[in-house]
Write a structure and sequence with these properties.
There is one protein chain. Helix 2 crosses helix 5. The chain contains five helices and no strands. By secondary structure, the protein is an all-alpha fold.
Amino acid sequence: MAGFEVSPEDLALWLTVAAALTVKPWALEFAYFAGLGGSTMALLTPDLWAPFPSYPTVYFFLAHGFVVVTLLTLVWGHLAKLRPGCVKRAFLILNGFTVLVGIFDVLFKTNYMYLCRKPGSSSLLDYFGPWPIYIITGEIFAFGVFWLLWLPFRSTSPSAAKP
């Protein structure tokens, strides 16, 4: 698509900016789980269409790197705190957003979030089976990643909050 477009990666970036500027739990929680999980995956297995050092490639690494560094600084630096139930909330928001993106993909014949087909380059999705199985496997994997990202911040008291 030519012109202005907003991708799910941009949503993670802008929610990270909102979380950094406002330190609001609603922005932080979704940005932390979806942004950190997704941006880390993107940095490890980039799906690039332009060679380095082109603007799109530099932007890709800077934006995803910004998301990772900012969210880790906010949470690990104790500038913001994850609330009880944050894993479930973030996962439900991600699934609601995924449904909207899936509808957009079908209507406009796009492939945001790789809901219609796997990326052209190698990625973790290659191990998750064919379409649509890799979407279900990805759901399970995403929840596992969210839970692992939450583990360092869970309370160890007897009345510990559930994820």
